[in-house]
Amino acid sequence: MIVLAYDHGAFEMFQKIKAYLKKNGLEYIEFASKEYDALDNFSSFAKSANNEVVKGNIGIYGCRSGLGMSMASNRKKGIRGALCIQPIFAEMSRKHNDANVCILPCDYICYKRAIRIINTFLNTEFLGGKYQKRVEELDEIE
Asked: 10 Å Cβ neighbour count for 65?
C-alpha cells in the first residue's frame, strides 16, 4: 500500500499523482485535505501517514519545498524520509538507506519528473549487506 501525505502546497500535484496511481492499479491511502485549504497543517498529515508507513507501507509525501514534510516525517522512529528532487535521489535513498518515504518538493519539480521519481522509488530495492548496519544505526539516533 502506498501512503500519501501532502498539504495545500502540493494539492494540485497530488491530484495528478493520485490519477496516475489509479490508472496504474496502485492502491493508496491519503492523509491530506480533501480540497485546497491554505490553513491545513502538513505536520498532522505526516504524523498520521507515518503511523501507516511503520507498518511496512511505503510513503510519498509532498509540500511546496519538501522541507517541512522532511522534518515532520523523520521525527518518528522507523521512518527514513528522503527529499527527492531527481530520480537518482530516489534510487540512492532506496539502495543505500532503505528509505521508506519519498518526499517531493512540488514547487521545484514538474509532474513528469515527479512521476519518474515515484517510479524509481517504488521500483528500487534496498541493497542490504553493508548498508544494513547504517539503517539499524539510524533508529538509534536520538
From this structure: 15
CA torsion sign for 69, 71, 77, 80 is: positive
- The strand pairing partners of 2, in sequence order, are 28, 58
The DSSP call for residue 62 is E
Per residue in 7-29, pLDDT (tens digit) is 999 999 999 999 999 999 999 99
Alpha-carbon gap, residue 57 to 4, rounded angstroms: 10
pLDDT tier, 112 (very low <50, low <70, confident <90, very high otherwise): very high
Q: Any idea what the Cα angle at residue 101 is, between residues 115 and 89, rounded to 5°?
A: 60
Kindly tell me the burial class for residue 57, based on how many C-beta atoms sit within 10 Å of its own C-beta (0-12, 13-18, 19 or more): middle
Contact (Cβ atoms closer than 8 angstroms) between residue 119 and residue 138? no
Neighbours of 20 (CB within 10 A): 15
**Is 0.90 topped by the overall pTM?**
yes
